[in-house]
Design brief:
heterotrimer; A alpha/beta (428); B alpha/beta (196); C alpha/beta (344); B: 196 residues; alpha/beta; 5 helices; disordered N terminus; C: 344 residues; Rossmann fold; 5-stranded parallel beta sheet; 4-stranded parallel beta sheet; 11 helices; 13% strand
Chain lengths: 428, 196, 344
């Protein structure tokens, strides 16, 4: 069986159409397409999107297989409607050599749930001192184009400048985790009214904004493109907006949790809300939503950060930072962007598939839903409403901040190059 | 807590068994008995058990002073922390324990309370006394003994023996606290806050 | 608050007054030949100290023992905690031994809250200081000391601190004592002013129910009590202030400054004092300084808290308690009063 007919799907949220897949590609998009010789999927008014692309995922393999593996992480990705994920470099060992990135890349290929595009470390061991072999990683089988020390900031201005310059040779991009280290020593949560009351170490917005300001100026100076990971403050939005208005080649991402949650959640002292960068204020959340809507922020990236139960079942200060996000990302975006009228589904496709694929140079992903394109597709039941139940996650970890929270929408089908990875909400 | 309405209901059902003048009279009698039995009451210390026992102790002291012409030490002994039923209720607010300056060692302590019933309050009072000093002897004066003892305890001075049923309630009202002097006998209320 | 005492902010005005009144009665036990009450006989309390604090631990221990509780002391040093055992495992281990209450001191803000709310254990939790968050019994003993000195020992019964002007000076940023005091003193009707160099005031302080000043001298004459907070010398190295000398010149309390306080005003300090830093020896040793009294009052306050949380079948200190009247000082002062018909 090589043909699949998706009948009556709202492509990018438009009028219902049929989409015929033949092998790895879309053969036709139209009305009343013939179902002859095809397996039929009744879309019944569900929304069809190009397969989602996550520019920021932690798959934890190698080294922390107790929290996630390439297999469990890509199964979680398929469940969430993703067909490609970029795997961050902060593994053990660090993905700072061709060997490690090739291993991660091959594991993704073998499992076949989702394309895994490794991100290479900018500096050796993420230590911020010495450039990793960026060229070798690019030339490896993994073909790395995105480099990041995520989890740590490339805080040395000279190293950052050199990295920005160096990757120009092969069209790479540096994705900066913007966190001024001295300003965030002992930091536990957003610095403000809530941190003052809770007595948790403050993480000032300026620690993020000062690095972003520096890096857009560096990018302008050396004529490179730069990508900013997980923007979390209204001030960061202003700086990126200003940089874009000057023609600086900067792109930026926001996580689903920064679009929904605020630092008020820390009042529970439940470390499931502990994340880097920290949850900010209502004002920041609103600014981020607006910026994603007007294009100042280019994409949504999950920063899916699995942690074993014991690393969260403890006091706040002792807990690991991060939340899983692949399986809830689209629902959060539907709630915060679509149902608020800020984005339509075409806009969601742009922010969660087209743009991230373009920034990461992920060939075959983020393409239009039209004849001749690779059949990387996601079908979403947008009418669905249900409480998040971490027990049903495909991820090995359960550290979601949404447990028990009602979120809209559910991915029912995902196709990776014509092959179903998710059918009726169940992994194939 | 009682609502005002409950209280009125209760009081209208109850009948007075001692009125103001009766109470004054029995206190005078008890004072004379104390002087007689304590051979002049030289070393008597009166300790009232809060709340109403304290007022009775003060009245008794005044009468003793009239009779003997001497100052009679009077204080209060809160027994809350010594109760045997603490675990059965939310913690109670504490009342004042005030031991007269010269203490109770070697003295005759007369405990004063309004009603003697199960005897558990007095048991707790004896324990509390034990932590404060070593009296020569301890005696007990009560305005009303309503019977139904659950412990081997008896009063040395009784204002009125009042045979009651367990379905009845005895309520002592004193001017200092309640605006008038009376002892009421009525049907027991079973409001939710009250224990049986 | 329900079965726990986590934050001074959880106490209503009536809760706080009830604790202070109860402590006043508890204080009298200290004057007796036998300084012991049978009240918590058969109850087990563990003092779970993850941070060194001998004085707080001893104060709780004295309070527990005066109420006849069985006391287990657990200090993290040299225990399985230093070998990596988690707070959760430690707490569950202790509870398996039949503990009724956990008095916890922890370096992480929120650790007592986690212990009380995460379902790890059933025991009551009393916060004996967590990180830079809260230290509610310290705030209560401070309020108790102020009420005694500024309102009166007997006159204070049933009263709060309405209209009293309290100045708290020093490292507010790192101080759980400051946070707890601001919450409790505000609840009790006092007007609080925090005085510190701007570096030692947290960002976000504007939401606190108090005034902020950077100038000690202008607040002294308007203070009924001045509470000096300890300033650790190592803060200097993190650039919170230039030198020790400059700090004590601008924010330390010396004899000259004390002389500018109203005659009735007192000087307080949660201890341990750093003499020569935030307070001079002359002030520390003066009659107006209540440091030693605060220590004694700490035992009474902790007895009151233990009694009110553990003394009955449910805690007496709760948000849902009906209002309490204070019409007569010698009256029972709780909603759970003893009715006249009770067993005698």
């Amino acid at each position: 069986m090589s043909k699949i007919l998706i009948r009556g799907a709202k492509v990018l949220g438009g009028e219902p159409q049929d989409v015929l897949i033949d092998g790895e590609v879309i053969e036709a998009v139209g009305t009343a397409l013939s179902a002859e010789g095809a397996e039929v999927v009744e879309a019944d008014g569900k929304v069809l999107l190009p397969g989602l692309v996550d520019l920021h995922t932690h798959l934890r393999e190698p080294g922390r297989e107790d929290s996630e593996t390439v297999l469990t992480g890509t199964r979680a990705a398929a469940s969430g409607g993703f067909t490609a994920v970029f795997a961050m470099a902060n593994t053990f060992p660090v993905a700072d050599t061709a060997g490690v990135v090739e291993q991660v890349y091959r594991l993704g290929q073998e499992h076949g749930y989702c394309d895994v595009q490794p991100i290479g470390a900018v500096t050796v061991g993420l230590e911020g001192k010495k450039l990793a072999e960026l060229g070798a990683m690019h030339e490896s089988a993994a073909g790395v184009t995105v480099f990041s020390d995520d989890g740590k900031c490339v805080d040395d201005a000279v190293i950052m400048r050199r990295a920005l310059e160096y990757v120009k040779a092969f069209g790479g991009v540096v994705a900066q985790h913007a966190q001024e280290p001295r300003l965030t020593e002992g930091a536990q949560m957003n610095e403000g009214v809530v941190s003052a009351e809770l007595g948790l170490g403050g993480w000032p917005a300026v620690a993020e904004e000062s690095i972003i300001a520096r890096d857009v100026l560096l990018a302008e100076h050396v004529g490179s493109r730069v990508h900013i990971c997980h923007l979390s403050t209204a001030g960061s939005v202003e700086i990126v907006r200003w940089a874009k208005s000057r023609g600086i080649d900067v792109t930026a991402e926001v996580t689903p949790h920064h679009l929904l949650l605020t630092d008020e959640m820390a009042r529970t002292y439940n470390p499931v809300y502990k994340v880097n960068p920290p949850l900010r204020t209502e004002r920041d959340v609103m600014a981020l939503r607006e910026a994603l809507a007007d294009g100042t922020i280019d994409i949504v990236a999950t920063d899916h950060a699995p942690h074993p139960h014991e690393d969260k079942d403890c006091e706040w200060a002792a807990a690991a930072m991060g939340m899983v996000g692949l399986e809830t990302a689209l629902s959060v975006v539907q709630q915060t962007m679509v149902e608020t009228g800020l984005l339509d589904w075409a806009g969601v496709a742009d922010r969660m598939s087209v743009k991230p694929a373009r920034i990461g140079r992920a060939a075959g992903h983020g393409r239009p839903v039209s004849a001749g394109e690779p059949a990387n597709l996601t079908l979403v039941d947008t009418a669905y409403r249900g409480a998040v139940d971490p027990a049903g996650f495909a991820s090995r970890s359960r550290n979601t901040p949404y447990e028990g929270r009602e979120l809209p929408g559910r991915v029912t089908h995902t196709w990776l190059r014509g092959k179903a990875t998710l059918v009726d909400g169940k992994l194939a | 807590m009682d609502t005002e309405q409950d209280k009125q209901q209760h009081e209208s059902d109850a009948r007075p068994v001692l009125e103001g003048p009766d109470i004054a009279r029995v206190l005078t009698r008890i004072a004379h008995e104390i002087v007689e039995r304590a051979k002049g009451a030289d070393d008597v210390v009166l300790l009232g058990i809060p709340t109403r026992g304290v007022f009775l102790a003060r009245r008794l002291a005044a009468k003793l002073e009239e009779i003997t012409g001497r100052k009679i030490p009077v204080g209060s002994l809160d027994i809350t922390m010594y109760r045997d039923d603490l675990r059965m209720h939310p913690p109670r607010a504490l009342a004042r324990t005030e031991i007269p300056g010269d203490g109770i060692d070697g003295r005759l302590v007369v405990l004063v309370d309004d009603v003697l019933f199960s005897g558990r309050t007095i048991r707790a009072a004896l324990d509390a006394l034990n932590d404060i000093g070593r009296p020569r002897a301890v005696q007990l004066a009560v305005l009303v003994d309503r019977g139904h003892r659950e412990l081997p305890i008896r009063a040395d001075y009784v204002g009125k023996n009042l045979p009651t049923s367990l379905r009845e309630a005895v309520k002592v009202q004193l001017a200092e606290e309640d605006g008038r002097d009376t002892v009421l006998l009525g049907a027991k209320r079973t409001s939710p806050g009250e224990r049986q | 608050m329900q079965r726990h005492l986590i934050s001074a902010a959880d106490l209503t005005r009536d809760d706080a007054v009830l604790i202070l009144d109860t402590a006043e009665e508890m204080a009298r036990v200290a004057d007796r030949p036998i300084k012991k009450l049978p009240t918590l006989r058969g109850r087990t309390v563990v003092n779970l100290f993850f941070e060194d604090s001998t004085r707080t631990r001893i104060s709780f221990e004295a309070a527990e023992k005066r109420l006849s509780a069985d006391v287990i002391n657990f200090t993290a040093k040299g225990s399985s905690v230093s070998k990596g055992e988690s707070l959760k495992d430690t707490a569950q281990t202790l509870e398996a031994m039949g503990v009724d209450a956990v008095v916890i001191r922890h370096g992480a803000s929120g650790a007592p809250y986690r212990l009380a709310t995460s379902g790890w254990i059933d025991a009551a939790v009393i916060n004996a200081g967590d990180g830079t968050h809260q230290h509610p019994t310290q705030a209560l003993l401070d309020a108790f000391t102020m009420r005694r000195r500024l309102v009166g020992r007997d006159a204070g019964i049933g009263q709060d601190l309405s209209g009293k002007r309290i100045t708290i000076v020093g490292d507010v940023l790192h101080s759980r004592v400051a946070r707890s005091n601001v919450d409790l003193l505000h609840t009790l009707g006092a007007e609080v002013t925090l005085v510190a160099p701007p570096t030692l005031v947290p960002v976000g302080v504007e939401s606190w129910p108090c005034e902020i000043s950077y100038d000690l001298d202008s607040t002294l004459s308007k203070s009924d009590a001045v509470m000096m907070l300890r300033v650790q010398r190592e803060r200097m190295n993190a650039a919170f202030f230039p030198t020790e000398r400059e700090y004590s010149r601008r924010y330390g309390l010396d004899g000259d400054r004390m002389a500018r306080m109203p005659e009735h005003a007192i000087v307080m300090h949660p201890g341990p004092m750093v003499r020569g830093m935030e307070i001079t020896a002359e002030v520390a040793d003066s009659d107006r300084c209540t440091v030693v009294e605060q220590v004694a009052n700490g035992v009474s306050i902790r007895m009151a808290v233990l009694y009110l949380l553990l003394g009955g079948n449910e805690p007496a200190v709760t948000h849902t308690r009906p209002p309490v009247s204070h019409h007569h000082p010698s009256n029972e002062r709780s909603a759970h009063t003893i009715s006249a018909d009770e067993e005698k």
